[in-house]
C-alpha cells in the first residue's frame, strides 16, 4: 500500500495538485497540501518539490500520482514524472466521474477527488508507460490524415451544393472548379500520408510484426491497424481484449436491478470515438468480404438481429481476433477452426 497520493487536475496551461496521506487507522485521508502550477517542466519541478516537503522523508517509491486523460495536455506531465522514476496513473475521466457527488466544477476540488480515487482504487493502479517514438509519430500521422479527411468532406459537401446552382453564374462556376482542384489535392495528400504510415509500421522494429499480423485480418485496413497500435501503445498499454473493447465503446453494457430496472444492452459513449469509428468501418467491410464474418452476419440476420447490433458484434469479433493473433504471434487464417480440424484429421491419417 502506497503512503502518499497526489491527484492532479490538468488543463491546457495549468495543473492543480492535491496531496493526501492515508492514516494508519484506514480512515478517509484529509488534504495535506494543495498547489497550482504551470503545465510545463518548471511547474512540474515545483509540484514535486511541494510533494517532497509534504512527504517529510517518505521515499518517492511510496508515492502515487494520478491524473485524468485530457486528450494530450497531460502527456508532458506523465513523461516528466516517469522520467524521475516515479509512478503516475493516467485514468480515464469517465471512471473518475463515477464518484462525483455534485455537478459543480472546481479545479482544486477535482484534484482532491482524483487523489481520493487513487487511494480508494489502489488495486487498479496502472502505471503510465511512455509511448515510443514510432508510436508517437504514427499518432501524428493518423491525426493529420483525419484532419485532411474532414477538410475534404466539407469541401465535397460545399462543391456539390455549388454544382447545383452554378449553371448561370461565372463566379460560382469558378468556385466549383477551384474546389474540385482542392479536393483532388487533399486526396493526394491523404494518399501520401497513408504511404508514410505504411512505411513507418512496416519498417519499425518494434511495430512491424504486430502490423503484419493485424493487417492480415480481412476487413481491417491500414488506418484501423494504425489506430489499434496507437491506442493500445503497441499492446503494452492495453493487453486485454475486453479492456480495449470497453475503451473503444464497442463492449455492450446493461442495467439489471430488482424488478423494475431491466435495460437492454447498449453501447457506452464515454469512450474513444476515433477507434470506435475505425472499428465499425472495418466491421462493415468485413461483413462483406471476410468469410467468417459474412457467415456470422447471415446467421444473425436470420435470427432477426438489427443491422447495428450485427456490426457492433462483428467489430467485437474482429477485435478478439486482433488480440488473438498478437498473443499467438501469427497471421489471420480464415475458417481457422475448420482448417484446424482438417489438419488434425490429416495428421491422424498419416499416423
CATH evolutionary superfamily of the largest domain: Ribonuclease H-like superfamily/Ribonuclease H
N-end to C-end Cα span: 57 Å
CATH fold annotation of the largest domain: Nucleotidyltransferase, domain 5
Task: Report the uncertain regions.
Answer: none
Indicate the CATH architecture of the largest domain. Answer: 2-Layer Sandwich
Name the structural class: alpha/beta
As an assembly, this protein is single chain
SSE string = EEEHEHEHHHHHHHEEHHHH
Form type: globular
Q: Any idea what the radius of gyration is?
A: 25 Å
Q: What is the CATH level 1 assignment of the largest domain?
A: Alpha Beta
Provide the spatial order of strands within the biggest beta sheet: 3-2-1-4-5
How many domain regions?
3
Tell me the strand percentage band. Answer: 5-15%
Major sheet: size, sense and barrel closure?
5 strands, mixed
Q: Helix proportion of residues, in percent?
A: 55-70%
